[in-house]
Design a protein that fits this description.
By secondary structure, the chain is of the alpha/beta class. It has a single domain, classed as Alpha-Beta Complex (Spore Coat Polysaccharide Biosynthesis Protein SpsA, Chain A), CATH 3.90.550. It has a seven-stranded mixed beta sheet. A hairpin with a 2-residue loop joins strand 9 and strand 10. It starts with a strand and ends with a helix. About 45% of the residues are buried.
């Protein structure tokens, strides 16, 4: 099974930290944020990982190389000077991801979720990991109902940015910048998306304050 780490964003909310360093390389507990993902994916048996790049992408490729230092194989999907957003970035990387279902994780989150629990072959076109709603997103995104992701009324959870996708999810897409969310919502409306709830740690590392809080938390555990 292959995986993709989304790492092409500009990181506007992280400025000025991201003016000269791409957000995935910001240090957390002594290691770049993206390295935490690489290590977690490797622990789950994932050896082939695709990383998309745009803003300061050359810094990422220089820092990580071919992945040999981490015991994995890294491939890069270069989006040029303008990131293609979540959906467009995954669509462009499909030739590197192959014909089988693959894992995608947002590069700007941190979690203790175990990737090995994800289904290698989801029953629908996508399988999403949902988490408890953080204070900055109290309304949540989706509900879970008998293992299916739904959007009707009731208790909602937040989409973690972790999912397993079949390439067929992108069958009607065209090259260019577009978001993943509309594709997921259309599939959810068809009843074609399963999901699970992760009750452990998950942090959207979207601001300098959250980055600092995560660093303090992890420093206490090492």
């Amino acid at each position: 099974m292959r995986a993709m780490i989304l790492a092409a964003g500009r990181g506007e909310r992280m400025r000025p930290l991201t003016d000269r360093m791409p957000k995935p390389l910001l240090p957390v507990a002594g290691r770049p944020l993206i390295v935490h993902h690489i290590e977690a994916l490797k622990a789950a048996g994932i050896r082939d990982i695709v990383i998309n790049t745009a803003w300061l992408g050359e810094r990422i490729t220089e820092a990580l190389g071919d992945g040999a230092a981490f015991g994995v194989r890294l491939a890069y999907s270069d989006e040029g000077s303008q990131a293609l957003e979540t959906g467009g970035g995954i669509f462009k990387a499909l030739p590197l991801l192959g014909d089988e279902p693959f894992i995608v994780v947002n590069g700007d989150v941190w979690t203790d979720f175990s990737f090995e629990s994800l289904p290698e072959v989801p029953t629908g076109v996508a399988h999403l990991v949902l988490v408890d709603n953080p204070s900055h997103h109290p309304e949540g995104d989706f509900r879970l109902q008998a293992g299916r992701v739904v959007e009707d009324q009731g208790e909602r959870f937040t989409f973690s940015g972790i999912g397993v996708y079949r390439p067929q999810l992108f069958a009607d897409c065209r090259p260019g910048a577009f978001r993943l969310a509309p594709l997921l919502r259309a599939a959810i409306a068809r009843g074609d998306v399963t999901g699970e709830h992760h009750g452990g740690h998950w942090i959207d590392v979207g601001t300098p304050a959250r980055l600092a809080a995560l660093d303090r938390m992890l420093q206490k555990t090492v």
